[in-house]
Amino acid sequence: MTINDTSLTHHEGAEAVALLEELCDVYADAYGVEPGEEKTAAFRRRAEKQFAQPGFALVTARDGGRLVGFVFGYTLPAGDTHWWGGVQPEPSAEFLEETGTRTWVLSEIEVRRAWQSKGVGRALHDAALGARGEKRATLATGPDAAAQPVYESWGWRRVGRIPGDEGDYYSAYELYVLELPVSR
Length: 184
Prior knowledge:
Oligomer: single chain
Strand content: 25-35%
CATH architecture: 3-Layer(aba) Sandwich
CATH class: Alpha Beta
Order of helices and strands: EHHHEEHEHEHEE
Distance between the termini: 23 Å
């Protein structure tokens, strides 16, 4: 179960569609819920929308053929400031500017519970971000997410909090930014 036993593979959007059931199983395991529960159903809906986004990329980790983790995301389109909408404290206009090649959203990073704390998440993170050509990456977490100290130890910097949209899992999210390329 160490990282040495896992293989990492890069995928595009069309390949991600074919992997959706496995991705949902990993997501459910990572959160300790059943694959059919609402949390996993919400993940499925988000994932299906993101597979077709510009700059979408997926990296999977397999151990003995079994999918044990994944990371995916997409590039923010030019002019799209929805991601930054309502962020407090309000950053500069220059910070908010999106060119279509500036910012990659790390949307999901999930590892099955039995493989957590073994370096799989960090390997997925570095493989996904190391392949990006954007200037920075961003991610959002729940306000009290246990992963926040992990992200900070990987070099992510908290830039503020945004309100959640209606129907979101949280009423607010913490936003983080990481300058690219990733250095370790």
